[in-house]
Amino acid sequence: MTEIRLYVEGGGDRSDGRALIREGFGDFLDSARRLARRRRIRWSVTACGGRNAAFDAFKDALESHPEAFIVLLVDSESPVTGNPWEHLRTRDQWDPPGVPDEHCHLMVQMVEAWLVADPDVLAKYYGQGFHRNSLPRRDDVEAIPKDQLLQSLGRATADTKKKGYAKIRHCADLLGLLNQDRVRQRAHHCDLLFKTLEARIRE
Predict the structure, then answer these.
(1) Pick from 2, 58, 68, 113: CA 20 to 30 A from residue 129's CA?
(2) Do 140 and 82 have their domain in common?
(3) What are the contacts of 22-28 at 24+ separation with CB within 8 A?
């Protein structure tokens, strides 16, 4: 394995939005990125916009980069009870491409769960007027329904200078600021992503 390539959902339809999300995920995953580079393993993150586009790009990469470890990273959009390919087959009617589960990772139930896992970063980023008590208090952020995540972020940020949560711009910024260990403690599937990447790099 000479390269790791991640294909992630997010960034919208514009290239500048996708560039922001690519940078945000790169920063959040920086410990794995640095480990890969120390082992002389190439590393890239591609933000693909919609989830279907991410899946298509992932499948293309499996064919065009056989020497690489290819990873798909998308929102689960709902609770996850089985393995990731089973979840996506049921929810999105995607046919698994015949690679193991380690190639498929989910943000449960959406990337915003990772953001609320670190309220200290949110409070510092949004500053005066941020209502921390509006955030869900569950230790397991993956159990928070996606609608509740977005509504709570909206309430928490409505009275700040940023006047609410802007999904692409703010998400990209916050991903680069999050405390990785804190998020991993509160989001099992996020922790699994890091463990998978680290294990493949160390092989």
Answers:
(1) 113
(2) no
(3) 22/46, 22/47, 23/172, 23/176, 24/171, 24/172, 24/173, 24/174, 24/175, 24/176, 25/73, 25/175, 27/175, 27/176, 28/114, 28/175, 28/176, 28/178, 28/180
